[in-house]
Design a protein that fits this description.
Helix 15 (473-498) packs across helix 17, helix 16 (511-525) runs parallel beside helix 17 and helix 17 packs antiparallel against helix 20. By secondary structure, the protein is α/β, with parallel strands linked by helices. The model is unreliable at 143-150 and 671-680 (pLDDT under 50). The strands form six sheets. A six-stranded parallel beta sheet has the order 2-1-3-4-5-6, with helices on both faces. Strands 7, 8, 9, 10, 11 and 12 form a six-stranded antiparallel beta sheet that branches. Strands 14-13-17-16-15 form a five-stranded antiparallel beta sheet. It folds into five domains: 4-145, Response regulator (Rossmann fold); 161-261, PAS domain (Beta-Lactamase), CATH 3.30.450.20; 322-419, Beta-Lactamase, CATH 3.30.450.20; 504-666, Heat Shock Protein 90 (2-Layer Sandwich); 689-807, Rossmann fold (3-Layer(aba) Sandwich).
Length: 810
């Protein structure tokens, strides 16, 4: 006949593993998910061996062992404990009747230990209950040790209180009883567990208790104070507390033996009549004293009311403060907290009171340096400190003030903590804005000199090209120099636009050229792990746009995309094509209207982002990058540029699937005039007399040579004061004056103003690499005819000179 085994464990997986393992070995196996089910199984199933989990809800493994050992029919069953806490708690199996203990580890190890113990039992060998099998394959866990320590403290408290504590199932079965409860119920714990709680009461009173359990709602129920409730011949009072744990309803019953108290109350009642008679007999004698006593009582009540009102007013004020206010004793434990503290720290008052202040506010294990409570000086004043709360990450300005006793010693500390997180955020944003302003100042400072250098590079290169045939090899190389100079010019303009030192100028623009040019520049700056692809439509993509800003938008989006792929690499795809937006599509985006748009797309295969992050990426200063890796302004600038072009921007992203930015610019059909360098017509020529002034000798000479090659008679000067003296000497010797704006001694604006005062009709052209002193509009108000930005090509200079002279009637 096969031996019988009962496995008790609250883990379904463990029950299946044990059942399969033991079943394959030929044992008849039954399982139970808890101790109560196990006791029900034991009614008609007598096992030869029981495997019992140590930690189970309601009735633990050690208590189940005691119950089993109290049953005569089960005195010979072999009980083996399966413990998941063997590494953290020394388990004495013999103390509660178990034959052996196996530490829960990997199940393959458990199988080996079970096989050895069952083999030893079959061989009639004595199982050693003093040791734990399998400890060598597991290790201690600090959290389990802490939980076991908390449980021991809990058991000590419950074991030493005078009230009986009983936990029952919804049907009234006892699953826990403390020492006082067992004494009141008059039986040992193993006899009480699983017993019907109602059966301990007098038969006539059982239904009252059962009805209280059946009608138990969310609030406690009290029994026995107003009615007589007998338990084992003693009069008791019950408080029944409802508990809902993991969907199961149980009840905690607090039992108080009130036999002596009720007997005393009845005895007092028997004296009451006698005392009343004595009081009546002495009423006359005590009347005067009672009147005096009444006056004293009324005064006392009045004082208590005043004190109570003062306390209530203090509490209202305490709780009305919107910042954190706490009070600590001399050991720095919190004794009072206001409502704002609970709200801001997201803790209840019970969770805060009793804890150390440095633990609550700083997550520390020791007091702060310079703590007031450790300072013996009675004249120590408040101190202020900024702290970052470890849980919420918020920054608080903490003010600590000592509380002194009558002897001048520090008896406690009062804390006031104000949430300054938003203030710190604004300070950071201000710092970022100041950084941007500094960048703008730097950009404006170098723009003038840099553009002067570019003007010389581009100008002299073009002069050299005029002396060459287009089919000569060196001609193509010089063309590359010219193109590079113009790209550098555009980059300076981009920096000035970004730093808000230059206004955006929109013009009819073919975006295909801008996109292709930006992709060439990006290729050199992106890592080799990023594969760049572009899909540019063959159809025209005209928009009214600022080329520098469009270049900036594309650069920002592509750099962000490459940073999202810098860890593993990926594909960066840029697309450009005209797209017709119909009404249903426009309805999904309030920035779109039905019509033709130029659609610019930037797609990457990077790490993507959550929807919460995607909803905030266009906010100024918002960034997910590490400190020092970005200002959080890049996408905000992109969004502002697109909106200023009356366009729309959309973003789609999912974690692990990359990000797509779709930009839409209103498409135009009229391309307008072609910009600089787009035509093949010859440069305009002339024979007029020109005064050319620039403090850079190379640029003065360049202007003389460039215009001289076109037939003009040019006199150049590198000193504006010399130029003014020359003009004063012969005001009618010139048909046109071209002067640089930023010059020492006499600025271009001052020179122009003097020349126009002397000869108002002469046309003046003002050139500049960059200036934040005089705008084009202000220059025209002075009487300047043209405002020419460096670096400019020879063709551009020739065009402006001819147009200015023709407008003047030459």
């Amino acid at each position: 006949m096969n031996e019988k085994i009962l496995v008790v464990d609250n883990q379904p997986l463990m029950l299946r593993l044990m059942s399969n393992f033991l079943g394959k070995k030929g044992y008849e196996v039954k399982t139970a998910p808890d101790s109560m089910t196990a006791l029900a199984v034991l009614v008609d199933f007598v096992p030869d061996v029981m495997f019992v989990d140590m930690v189970m809800p309601h009735i633990s493994g050690d208590k189940l062992c005691r119950i089993v050992r109290s049953m005569p029919e089960l005195k010979n069953v072999c009980i083996i404990i399966l413990s998941a806490i063997a590494a953290e708690e020394n388990i004495d199996c013999a103390s509660f009747g178990a034959n052996a203990c196996i530490a829960k580890g990997p199940f393959r190890d458990i199988e080996q230990h079970i096989s050895r113990l069952l083999a030893a039992r079959s061989n009639k060998e004595e199982l050693v209950s003093s040791g734990i099998v399998g400890l060598e394959s597991i290790y201690q866990r600090e959290i389990t040790k802490e939980l076991l320590s908390s449980r021991k403290h809990f058991e000590v408290v419950l074991g030493n209180i005078s009230e009986g504590i009983v936990e029952c199932t919804g049907e009234g079965r006892i699953v826990y009883v403390n020492a006082a409860g067992a004494a009141i119920l008059g039986a040992r714990e193993e006899k009480i567990l699983v017993a019907d709680f109602f059966e301990f009461f007098a038969e006539s009173m059982r239904q009252e208790v059962a009805d209280a359990f059946a009608g138990l709602g969310e609030h406690p129920v009290a029994l026995g104070e107003e009615t007589v409730l007998l338990l084992k011949g003693r009069r008791v009072a019950l408080i029944v507390l409802p508990i809902v744990d993991a969907g199961q309803r149980t009840a905690i019953v607090i039992i108080q033996d009130i036999t002596a108290r009720k007997a005393a109350e009845e005895k007092l009642e028997s004296y009451r009549d006698h005392l009343e008679k004595m009081v009546v007999a002495r009423t006359a004698e005590l009347s005067q004293k009672n009147e005096q006593l009444g006056a004293e009582i009324r005064e006392r009540h009045s004082a208590e009311e005043r004190m109570g009102e003062a306390r209530r007013e203090w509490e209202r004020t305490f709780d009305a403060v919107d910042d954190i206010v706490t009070m600590q004793d001399a050991s720095l434990r919190l004794t009072r907290v206001n409502k704002a503290t609970c709200r801001i720290l997201r803790k209840t008052e019970a969770e805060l009171v009793g804890r150390y202040c440095y633990e609550v506010f700083r997550g520390a294990t020791e007091p702060c340096l310079g703590c007031l409570a450790h300072c013996a000086s009675p004249d120590r004043k408040s101190y202020i400190q900024e702290i970052v709360h470890p849980d919420s990450g918020k920054t608080f300005l903490l003010t600590a003030t000592p509380v002194m006793d009558d002897q001048g010693r520090i008896s406690g500390v009062t804390h006031f903590a104000k949430d300054i997180s938003e203030q710190k955020k604004l300070e950071f944003q201000l710092m970022q804005a100041q950084k941007m302003e500094a960048i703008g100042t730097l950009a404006g400072g170098i723009a003038h000199d840099f553009n002067n250098i570019l003007a010389a590079v581009v100008g002299y290169t073009e002069l050299a090209m005029l002396d060459l045939q287009e089919n000569m090899p060196v001609y193509a190389k010089l063309e590359e120099v010219t193109r590079a100079g113009k790209r550098a010019r555009d980059l300076v303009a981009q920096i000035l636009t970004f730093s808000r030192h230059s206004e955006a100028k929109r013009e009819p623009l073919e975006l295909r050229g801008i996109v292709k040019e930006a992709m060439k520049l990006l290729r050199a700056s992106l890592p080799s792990t990023v594969e760049m692809k572009q899909e540019i439509s063959d159809q025209p993509c005209w928009a009214l746009a600022d080329p520098v800003q469009i270049h900036q938008v594309l650069m920002n989006l592509c750099v962000n995309a490459s940073q999202a792929m810098r860890g593993k690499g990926g594909i960066l795809l840029v697309t450009l094509a005209p797209e017709e937006i119909d009404e249903p599509r426009a309805a999904r985006n309030p920035d779109l209207r039905p019509g033709l748009y130029v659609h610019l797309g930037v797609r990457d295969t990077g790490h993507g982002m959550e929807q919460e992050v995607a909803g905030r990426i266009f906010e100024p200063f918002f960034t997910t990058k590490q400190t020092g890796e970005g200002t959080g302004m890049g996408l905000a600038v992109v969004h502002g540029i697109v909106k200023s072009h009356k366009g729309a921007i959309e973003v789609a992203s999912q974690p692990g699937q990359g990000t797509v930015f779709d930009l839409y610019f209103p498409c135009i059909t009229e391309t307008g005039e072609l910009g600089e360098g787009c035509g093949d017509s010859p440069m305009s020529r002339g024979t007029e007399r020109i005064l050319f002034v620039d403090d850079e000798p190379a640029l003065a000479e360049l202007g003389k040579q460039a215009l001289g090659s076109l037939g003009y008679r040019v006199e150049s000067h590198g000193d504006s004061r010399e130029a003014w003296a020359r003009f004063v000497a012969a005001p009618d010797a010139f048909d046109l004056v071209i002067t640089d704006l930023t010059m020492p001694g006499l600025t271009g604006a001052q020179l122009a103003e003097k020349i126009l005062a002397l000869r108002p009709a002469i046309p003046v052209v003002l050139t500049t690499g960059y200036s934040d002193i005089l705008t084009e509009e202000e220059a025209r108000e002075l009487g300047v005819h043209e405002y020419l930005l460096k670096p400019f090509s020879t063709a551009r200079l020739a065009e402006v000179v001819r147009r200015t002279l023709d407008a003047d009637g030459h």
